[in-house]
Amino acid sequence: MEKNIIDYLDKDCVILGLKQKSKKNILSAILDHLIQKKKINKADKNPILKVLLQREEMGSTAIGGYIALPHARVDCVKDVLVCFAISSEGLNFDSLDQEVVNIIALLLSNQKEAGMHLKTLAFLARMLRDKYFVQQLKNAKTEEEVLNLLNKQQQIAR
């Protein structure tokens, strides 16, 4: 990969203590956070949410192992945007293994970025296969700790 996941992430793209109960509310809360941090425009929330939910209808992006990778390609996003949302208690995301989800790695990219979108999605999945790493993320107390863990894991996953 030319760019690092960390290049698309800063502490404004890390959410700790997510508690929403439904998939729609979870995704909505993540988008509200990104609006608040000026990563996306408020006017783009509903179109992005619609595309994310349509993707979920095709099959849950909760891939098991306490991980969900919701993703969408939308015109209103200029580059690639990655957001990590973490819930220590776990959330219901219709996971393939029937378990709760603790780590949600949301990926948004521009329609024209199909190749980069798929590469980034595959890299996120590869990074998050490590159960020990997922446990560390789940227990992270600060945004900086999450970024440090991701940075270290990224070096390993290459």
Summarize the structure.
42% of the residues lie in helices and 20% in strands. It is built from 5 helices and 6 strands.
Q: Quick check: average pLDDT?
A: 91
Bin the strand percentage. Answer: 15-25%
| Tally of DSSP helical segments | 5
Estimate nothing, just give the exact number of structural domains. Answer: 1
**H/E element string?**
EHHEEEEEHHH
Structural class: alpha/beta
Spans where pLDDT lies below 50 across 5 or more residues: none
| CA-CA gap between termini | 8 Å
**CATH fold topology:** Mannitol-specific EII, Chain A
The first-level CATH class name = Alpha Beta
Report the C-alpha radius of gyration, rounded.
Answer: 14 Å
